[in-house]
Specification:
Blueprint (H helix, E strand, L loop, with lengths): L1 H11 L4 E4 L2 H8 L10 E5 L5 E4 L1 H10 L4 E4 L6 H11 L4 E4 L4 H10 L4 E4 L2 H7 L4 H24 L6 H14 L10 E4 L20 E6 L2 E2 L2 E2 L2 E6 L5 H20 L6 H14 L11 E3 L6 E5 L12 E4 L2 E4 L3 E4 L2 E5 L4 E3 L8
Parallel strand pairs: 1-5, 3-4, 5-6
Antiparallel strand pairs: 1-2, 2-3, 7-8, 8-11, 9-10, 12-13, 14-17, 15-16, 17-18
Helix pairs in contact: 7-8, 9-10
Length: 354
């Protein structure tokens, strides 16, 4: 069905072939997931059967799991570019689009064909992937449930004297134990002054009493990823910390209330940003409000002040306002949200710690 939808869009633009090399795009169209650095090529002719080219080590798994396509193995004696060229000639393709190619592969194809147009067009696939179907939504619900488990385990492990990576280990173990296929991205545990780093990753820093700790993590279910952030204080928060938590919480709530189908993404961003600006912390909100999530942790649509996206029913996006004060610490609250016709539904449900 997804391949047929792509073909319909290709037909509108007189495109007679599409070449897919991105691992997640291959999975999206065939149901076959390989290791992240595998070399795969899915060739979809407008007229004819799609062919998935795989290396020998991937052949058996692809043959057993790939749907709606032929599976051809590339022997160790062959070069993948030669196989792609062979398929292009066999299907008499003249106007081909692709999602991603290395520079050497692209230049190699250009040299092989003087009368074939080969054009990058990632938007064509993103237009399909950005709206999730019922099966994808169910996978993302499960990934969100697993992220809730991880965030709760991480928070329970926080105490003075514990190192950041120890918190990450507890959170990741809990998600794995309950069925996560891995982590959606490098877990962020950022404490004290490091919590003012929006992408503070994880270090061997010892957490101290009275500090902010940001936990930002995600799980994976059937290839689909989740994303959640919570901020806690070790011990009793100060008046300033309470205020920061309360302001970011209000911004988060305001954005959630704003979400519905056909709203401009920049308006959702503005709804949260205006809350921080009204309290004098506009400059401390250093990033956009959110982004789409699915097979990749960052997908369209984008929620930011410069976004041209319009939210559609079936989009799944993060809502993550933040405030970062250099030398003191930061606060971020994030949930994964499913866009419905008239509202946004929180998929991540872990409690807030204010």
């Amino acid at each position: 069905m997804r391949i047929e939808l792509l073909k319909r869009e290709m037909l509108k633009s007189n495109v007679d072939g599409y070449l897919i090399s991105n691992i997640n795009n291959v999975f999206y169209f065939t149901g076959f997931m390989d290791i992240s650095d595998a070399t795969l090529s899915l060739i979809i002719p407008l007229d004819g059967e799609p062919t998935l080219l795989v290396p020998p080590l991937s052949y058996t798994a692809a043959k057993d799991n790939a749907l709606n396509c032929l599976v051809n193995v590339i022997s160790t004696k062959d070069k993948i570019i030669d196989k792609i060229v062979q398929k292009i000639k066999l299907n008499n393709l003249k106007n081909i689009e692709f999602d991603t190619l290395s520079t050497s592969m692209y230049m190699g194809l250009i040299k092989k064909f003087k009368d074939v147009k080969i054009t990058l067009n990632q938007k064509r696939i993103w237009n399909l992937r950005r709206v999730k179907d019922s099966q994808e939504i169910s996978f993302l619900r499960k990934a969100s449930e697993l992220a809730d488990i991880g965030i709760e385990a991480g928070i329970q492990a926080i105490k003075a004297g514990v190192k950041e990576y120890e918190i990450a280990a507890e959170a990741e173990y809990a998600m794995r134990l309950h069925g996560s296929e891995g982590i959606a991205f490098d877990t962020i545990i950022a404490s004290g002054p490091r919590s003012a780093y929006p992408h503070g990753v994880c270090s061997n820093r010892v957490i101290n009493k009275g500090e902010f700790v940001i936990l930002d993590l995600g799980a994976v279910s059937s290839g689909y990823r989740s994303d959640i952030t919570r901020t806690v204080v070790v011990g009793t928060p100060t008046r300033k910390q309470k205020k920061m938590l309360e302001i970011v919480s209000r911004a988060h709530k305001k954005a959630l209330e704003c979400i519905h189908e056909n709203i401009n993404a920049y308006e959702v961003d503005a709804s949260a940003r205006d809350v921080l600006k009204s309290e004098g912390y506009g400059k401390e909100f250093l990033h956009g409000l959110g982004h789409g999530v699915g097979l990749d942790i960052h997908e369209p649509p984008t929620l930011s002040s410069s976004s041209e996206d319009v939210l559609k029913k079936g989009n799944i996006v993060t809502v993550e306002p933040g405030m970062y004060i250099v030398g003191f610490g930061g606060v971020r609250i994030e949930d994964l949200v499913l866009v419905h016709e008239n509202y946004g539904e929180r998929l991540t449900q872990a409690a807030y710690y204010l």
